[in-house]
Design goal:
Helix content is 78%, strand content 0%. Helix 3 runs antiparallel to helix 4, helix 4 runs parallel beside helix 6 and helix 6 runs antiparallel to helix 7. It is built from twelve helices and no strands. By secondary structure, it is mainly alpha-helical.
């Protein structure tokens, strides 16, 4: 019996070697695809983080280049929710940069391009949520699209609530609430009444979180809101308050 098994293995050794080669080749190709896609994702992620802190560094050319990288990553891994989420962010940035550049002579064309880019962003976020429903970044993305469209309706606030349920400690949630909240506060909009408690909460958490801290502090400065934020965070911890200019005195 043993001899028969050995003879069978010997007769099929060529087949086994071929299968081993195929498995090794598959593993190599998969590893290379993972490497390329991963590099593309982190390159784009870093670019977006730079643009968030310094929007003037974003351009349509840079956004299109980043979109090509993410498209390539999605060709390799079409079921990656994170790649769709970041693709949505890029379409939002494209809507912003094209509106600022205004290379076209037609205002109608500018509006059409913005609508198209925001629709594409929403599609990307929805694809991401189909793959991973509890991803706060994609819910924030849908809220961000509504904000750019000027549609601060019940659906907008439902997206914020979904994002909060999915990731109440996520940096992306802190960033969005602080930016939106301070904007409507300065504009004396009635939306401030709806968002004020969340704003105070996420100001505190956003400054505590090192992944959102720089953005939150810069947003406070942008809206010249140091005094108001210091007042809202009077019960916050010392490490939080000390980061707000003139919030702590030693008199």
């Amino acid at each position: 019996m043993t001899n028969k098994v050995l003879n069978a293995l010997a007769n099929n050794s060529g087949l086994l070697k071929w299968l081993a080669f195929l498995l090794a080749a598959f593993g190599f190709v998969w590893s290379m695809q993972l490497f390329v896609a991963g590099n593309a994702y982190y390159s784009v992620k870093n670019s977006i983080e730079v643009w968030q802190l310094s929007p003037d560094k974003a351009s349509t050319q840079k956004v299109n280049s980043a979109l090509d990288k993410i498209d390539n990553a999605l060709n390799y891994f079409p079921n990656n929710a994170l790649y769709y989420q970041i693709q949505g962010q890029l379409f939002e940035w494209k809507a912003i940069t094209e509106a600022e550049t205004k290379n076209t002579d037609s205002t109608k064309t500018d509006l059409t391009n913005k609508v198209f880019n925001l629709q594409e962003a929403a599609k990307s976020y929805e694809k991401s949520l189909k793959l991973r429903p509890n991803w706060s970044g994609s819910w924030i993305g849908l809220a961000s699209v509504k904000r750019q469209q000027g549609e601060l309706d019940d659906e907008f606030y439902s997206y914020l609530e979904s994002a909060n349920r999915a990731g109440p400690q996520d940096a992306i949630l802190h960033k969005f609430i602080v930016d939106f909240g301070l904007q409507v506060f300065n504009a004396r909009s009635f939306h401030y009444v709806k968002i004020k408690e969340r704003l105070k909460h996420h100001l505190n958490l956003g400054i505590e979180n090192p992944l959102s801290r720089d953005f939150v502090l810069k947003t406070i400065q942008k809206h010249n809101a140091n005094e108001a934020v210091c007042r809202w965070l009077r019960d916050a911890s010392y490490p939080v308050k000390k980061r707000i200019p003139n919030c702590i005195t030693y008199n």
